[in-house]
Amino acid sequence: MDEYHVRGAAAGDYGCINEVHKRVFEEVLVPPQFNTRVEDREGPLVKQRRMKMRDIVDGLSNTIMLAESAGKPTAWLAIGKMTPPSFALYNDDKVILHNGVYITNDGTGWADPDSGFTVNGATADGLKKYGPVMINAINASEVFAFHVLNVEEKWVGVNTRMLQIDLVAGRQQQFVYQLENPKHKLHEILAVDSGRFLVIEQDGLGGDLARFKQIVLIETGDATPLPEDSALPPDHLPDNIRPVRKVRTLDLLDPAFGLAGPGMPEKIEGLCFGPTLPDGRRILVIATDNDFRTDQDSMFYVFAVSL
C-alpha cells in the first residue's frame, strides 16, 4: 500500500462526518442561533472524543453520522473527472497528480481512519472551498454521489454483477446474475461450496402486494468471467457471455408453506446454515429485517434443504 492509500486499498464510498468547518458554519450556513464552540459543529464520530447520544442536543434526526463520498480514488467534480485545466484552478491540497491520474489523497481506503471528513462546502465548480454547495461539488473530503435519478427511475435492467474473490490465489472474477424483473432486489448471498451459492431475490413488497420472494440456488461453473472494464446492456447479454445458472428456487410464496398473505414481511434479507441433519439435509435459516420497528416482528423461517 502506498502513502495515498491507492494501490492495494479497497476504496470506500462512505465516511463519517467529523464536523462542519467553523468558517462555513458561520459565514455560509449562518444558522439563526449558534455559538462558536467546536462541540456544536462536531459529528457523532469526531476524532479523539467519545460522543454520546445525549450530547447531540439538536436532535439525532438532524445529525448525519455517515455520508457518501463516491468515486475515489479518482478525483471528481460536478462536471466530471478532474482535468489539468481544472486542477490548475484548484486551491486546496486534497487532490494530487499520481501516476497520471488526479486522485484524492485524504482517506481513500474503506478502513482508513482518515476516511472521515470535515464538511467545508465548495463553490459550484468544486475548485474552491468554503462555498455554498455542500453536495456534489467535489468528492475530495466532501459529500458526493452519482445518483441523478430517483429510485424508481434507476431500476432499468436485469443484469447485475457478482464478484467472486479467491483469497488463496488472490484473484477475483465477475459474473452476471440476471434478475427475473428489473425492479427486483438482491440481498444475502450464502456460499454452499466454491461454485454454488444461495441468493435472495425479491420484489421488496410486503403483505398481499408481495409477488416474488425466492431463495435461488445458482452455479458459477459455466458462467463467463467478465473483464473488469466491461459494460453490460440493461436487458440482454451478448452471445459470448453466459450468466450464472439458476438451478432451482425455494419460493416463500408457495401456498404449501402458508407464508403468503397479509403477514408476509417486506424485507427478506438474511440467510445462514444451521446443523446438517442425520439424513444429509441442511438446515437453512431465512431472516427478515424489521428496521427496528417495535410494531413489526423479526421473523426466522427454518427449512430443511437438499443441496
Compact description:
This protein is mainly beta and 307 residues long.
Q: Would you tell me the structural class of the helices and strands?
A: mainly beta
Widest β-sheet, arrangement of strands: 10-11-12-13
Q: Could you state the order of secondary-structure elements as H and E?
A: EHEEEHEEEHEEEEEEEEE
How helical, in percent, are the residues? under 10%
User: Spans of 5+ residues with little confidence (pLDDT < 50)?
Assistant: 149-154
Q: Tell me the number of strands.
A: 16
Radius of gyration: 24 Å
Terminal Cα separation, in Å? 41 Å
Strand content: 25-35%
Return the average pLDDT rounded to an integer.
84
- Give the biggest sheet: 4 strands, antiparallel
General form: globular
What does this structure look like?
With 307 residues, the protein is mainly beta. It has two domains: 14-119, no CATH class; 154-305, no CATH class. 6% of the residues lie in helices and 30% in strands. It contains three helices and 16 strands. The strands form six sheets. Strands 10-11-12-13 form a four-stranded antiparallel beta sheet, with no helix packed on it. Strands 2-1-7 form a three-stranded mixed beta sheet. The longest helix has 8 residues, at 22-29.
